[in-house]
Amino acid sequence: MSAASVLVATPQSMHFAEALPLRSGASIRAYDLSYETYGELNADKSNAVLICHALNASHHVAGVYVDERGEVIPKSEGWWDSMIGPDKPVDTKRFFVIGVNNLGSCFGSTGPMQINPDTNEIYGADFPVVTVQDWVSAQARLLDALGIQTLAAVMGGSLGGMQALAWTLQYPERVRHAVVVASAPNLTAENIAFNEVARRAIVTDPDFHGGHFYQHGVLPKRGLRIARMIGHITYLSDDVMNEKFGRQLRRAVTETATEGAPFRYTTQDIEFEIESYLRYQGDKFSEYFDANTYLLITRALDYFDPASAFGGNLSRALAQATAKFLLVSFTTDWRFSPARSREIVKALLDNQRDVSYAEIDAPHGHDAFLLDDDRYMGVVRSYFQSKVAA
Amino acid sequence: MSAASVLVATPQSMHFAEALPLRSGASIRAYDLSYETYGELNADKSNAVLICHALNASHHVAGVYVDERGEVIPKSEGWWDSMIGPDKPVDTKRFFVIGVNNLGSCFGSTGPMQINPDTNEIYGADFPVVTVQDWVSAQARLLDALGIQTLAAVMGGSLGGMQALAWTLQYPERVRHAVVVASAPNLTAENIAFNEVARRAIVTDPDFHGGHFYQHGVLPKRGLRIARMIGHITYLSDDVMNEKFGRQLRRAVTETATEGAPFRYTTQDIEFEIESYLRYQGDKFSEYFDANTYLLITRALDYFDPASAFGGNLSRALAQATAKFLLVSFTTDWRFSPARSREIVKALLDNQRDVSYAEIDAPHGHDAFLLDDDRYMGVVRSYFQSKVAA
């Protein structure tokens, strides 16, 4: 396919020489942020939309990559390509959209896989613990460097939605609109529990070496696989799993089955399609994701809790926010259920803020925020057309 | 404490010299079953109640153990001691109650930790795959040996409930009542997915050695810990986790916290109480549970599906059952939700069977079936008094 008709993305990098103080008390001396932009910044720099990513995503939000001959690289679409692009709900003909890879991630921004300038060794487990607030601070510096004072909107799903919410609290004067999708004001005990099991799987993998596996020439793939499998279960709904996989046996199983004995009767080999799917997801993930990044990002999720500084009172916490809000949740999302979004809506209404809220009836669970659902896309499109662009 | 006033349990063992043919086509040449009995078998042998256990339990259902001086051993209560005993819902003054450890388990009955008589080596991963139906066949032989033709009731929770249901299909003429608590007619894709992640954690532990770790003098504790942590999350409800742990920080964390920095900012150490709790559960479990047994029992769960031989039609499958039924489910159980129990109720009603059903409003999730809830205990007590003893 020729790239003429599609949005072509070009990753960029920005260096920051000034140390970034972190919430933990530590700081990052110098760092780089990978980012991409789509569309054109207008003359008064009022049409910028910042997209914040979730656990395993990156700055490559929209568009495709092309090879040296100008041909589109297959499957190189950005992770929110259904949402962002020309004539899409977040229309890049109208908005200047910025995707940025967070500090501590593993897709180009400074993170555990890179050299610690203080020691000239790979950071590994020594990379400082970063929080949602730290990411927002780093993103704000990127906007400074791009000459953008005020965002038309900040937007994200899941952990990205937490960053959007944090923006409205840390830099209320710099955000006109916040779009918070499939998110929550903090993690529940169950959310933390799933994160903790995933972290234990990684940390107790003998190839983890206390987080300094890079020097040993190994990767804790076993742990990463388990972490991803656990995560994946929580991203899907019970319904969509039953619909897609149910109790369906893997083809190889049904082909070799003898009459009256539908199974292979094995504890270690695959019997059911769902097993095959999960193993594939785990294997794929373990090939490209950094184990220390997984620990850092799940911890950032655990720590996020804007209400904690206000005795647990979310309404008081959100009093600082002056942006207008769109919140979206999905009925079958049991990771960040609609009730969690409604907590945010209520706290904003308690402060007489301008809030739109859509609860989308979608079967896909938490993953729905990444999918191309008509009603969901329609709600975001309307919001950007009627409110953000107004 | 003296044992005079309490029910004292005495584990027994029964040897079976005749090979047991298994569903898989394999067979177990000879085997032992550990069991316990409470109360007295009446003259016409009509008051026997068989209790079937779930994933990690055993034949030690009720009562306590005493040491050689006759003193009660602390914390030696059976796993369903709140349910079974003198004057308890299943009253051992009236009923002769039998607990039996299933084949393939690790509490005395023949299983992967024992010697394979064919090879004189520890079974390990070579222990044949067993199904719920195989367990029922083995339990039936134990009843034969005890001279019991007909059970007043067969009863179990979770996987134990599946065995109770299977009893009514395999030996309809031998069961007067079936009490099926917090169970399901089969696993959903999500249930299988959680089992599969747990199994992968065990199998990919380098200390697993393909299931022959006994010869290597190691135990795959890392994998068992992860498996148990995952399981534990699914046993509890989101609500009860929030109530018990919420976002509460571990005491050590709050004590060392500095003003404005409530956390220790660490990815590998414990911050939240829920993490501490899960790690403790995982550690404890990995000390006593056999890894091959975990694989076998989760597979038995995966395979159970009485409707599959009837084109997925549960009503047709349950037409074979002639017992009277009590089904109990718990509102916050998301592992085997009330809807799954209602599927069984509906299928039995389609066959004009005598069915009682109680949906207990309890906050504890799947674990509720093991807890001492007044309404739950009351329902079982009434059923045994008014129906089973009638």
Q: What report would you give on this structure?
A:
2 copies of one chain form a homodimer. Chain A has 11 helices and 14 strands. The longest helix of chain A is centred in the C-terminal third of the chain and has 16 residues, at 273-288. An 8-stranded mixed beta sheet of chain A has the order 1-4-8-5-11-12-13-14, sandwiched between helices. In chain A, strands 2-3 form a two-stranded antiparallel sheet. The model of chain A has no long low-confidence stretch (mean pLDDT 95). In chain A, α3 runs antiparallel to α4. The first copy, chain A, has 390 residues and is of the alpha/beta class. The first copy, chain A, has helices at residues 132-146, 159-170, 189-203, 221-235, 238-244, 251-256, 273-288, 291-303, 314-318, 338-350, 374-388; strands spanning 12-16, 20-21, 27-28, 31-38, 48-52, 84-85, 90-91, 96-100, 115-116, 121-122, 153-157, 177-181, 324-330, 355-360. At the A-B interface, α3, α4, α5, α7 and α8 of A face α3, α4, α5, α7 and α8 of B.
What's the arrangement of secondary structure elements?
2 copies of one chain form a homodimer.
Chain A: E1 12-16, E2 20-21, E3 27-28, E4 31-38, E5 48-52, E6 84-85, E7 90-91, E8 96-100, E9 115-116, E10 121-122, H1 132-146, E11 153-157, H2 159-170, E12 177-181, H3 189-203, H4 221-235, H5 238-244, H6 251-256, H7 273-288, H8 291-303, H9 314-318, E13 324-330, H10 338-350, E14 355-360, H11 374-388
Parallel strand pairs in A: 5-8, 5-11, 6-7, 11-12, 12-13, 13-14
Antiparallel strand pairs in A: 1-4, 2-3, 4-8, 9-10
